[in-house]
């Protein structure tokens, strides 16, 4: 949240030069405050797990947030009860005449399928087109980030030689950008994906800014220059044990998935992995909510 100080306070200019969020008294007195309306398009198979992960992060700010969950109408999920979907989810047809302050598009287990071959691709692109005029800022996660980069900016994904699976170090390109304000120069984040996007393609696109890369140089945090779209290629929302559960699930299915890198202490799957990315998860979501949603969204959309 911003610091509210007098414009005449000597420290005010220094704080602004250091990129500390300062709001002068005149602006503060004219602000109207209302709850933020956030729509979550949950494409993950285990919907209740993803709901909890995201709500933990969205609920850890002083802002009041109203949450609506969206599901695809063209694909009926099978890993969640119909009762849960009917009671807590809506379809695009039911919200298309509303406006939202923020939208989150999650990952999905379809990354090895061509975008146009995904059963709900046309529905997703309709939602992304609608969001351009009816949502202040959209946060795309993992496959959702790849879909946003491809559809909006023509950045294609490519298949990796092996699954990117584990906890990796990342670097910040510019710590003064509001989205990564408060981040350490080097921080950790989980990844679980078979595909990636080209760093060269992102850096060559005049509409995109690359804010963070992994230790291997792969793009991690990408933002459109108008801040309408923010893409996170990994899973900062994951719990400490999520990768362990994915690893166990793959092996139960007979899938030869390697042990997640840099995850289990001593690579011992019987050891509980430490949660080394929690603080940056909270920072990312609170920065997005505050700077790119709350501070930018109109009090009355009309």
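^ structure tokens above, recovered residues below v
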């Amino acid at each position: 949240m911003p610091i509210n100080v007098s414009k005449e306070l000597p420290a005010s200019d220094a704080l602004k030069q250091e990129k500390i969020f300062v709001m002068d008294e005149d602006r503060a007195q004219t602000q109207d405050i209302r709850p933020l309306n956030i729509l979550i398009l949950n494409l993950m198979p285990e919907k209740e797990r993803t709901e909890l992960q995201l709500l933990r992060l969205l609920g850890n700010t002083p802002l009041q947030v109203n949450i609506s969950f969206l599901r695809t109408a063209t694909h009926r999920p099978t890993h969640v009860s119909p009762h849960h979907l009917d009671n807590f989810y809506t379809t695009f047809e039911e919200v298309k005449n509303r406006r939202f302050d923020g939208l989150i598009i999650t990952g999905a287990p379809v990354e090895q399928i061509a975008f146009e071959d995904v059963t709900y691709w046309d529905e997703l692109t309709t939602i992304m087109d609608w969001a351009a005029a009816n949502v202040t800022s959209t946060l795309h996660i993992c496959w959702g980030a790849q879909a946003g980069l491809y559809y909006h900016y023509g950045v294609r994904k490519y298949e990796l030689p092996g699954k990117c699976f584990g906890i990796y170090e990342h670097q910040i390109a510019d710590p003064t950008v509001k989205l990564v304000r408060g981040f350490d120069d080097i921080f950790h984040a989980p990844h679980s994906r078979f595909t990636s996007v080209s760093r060269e393609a992102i850096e060559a696109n005049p509409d995109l800014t690359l804010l963070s890369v992994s230790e291997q140089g792969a793009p991690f945090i990408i933002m459109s220059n108008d801040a309408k779209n923010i893409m996170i290629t990994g899973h900062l929302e994951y719990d400490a044990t999520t990768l362990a559960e994915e690893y166990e699930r793959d092996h139960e299915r007979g899938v030869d998935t390697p042990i997640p890198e840099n995850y289990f202490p001593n690579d011992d799957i019987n050891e509980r992995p430490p949660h080394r990315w929690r603080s940056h998860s909270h920072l990312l979501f609170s920065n997005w909510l505050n700077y790119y949603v709350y501070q930018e969204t109109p009090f009355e959309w009309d």
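The CA atoms of residues 131 and 138 lie 8 Å apart.
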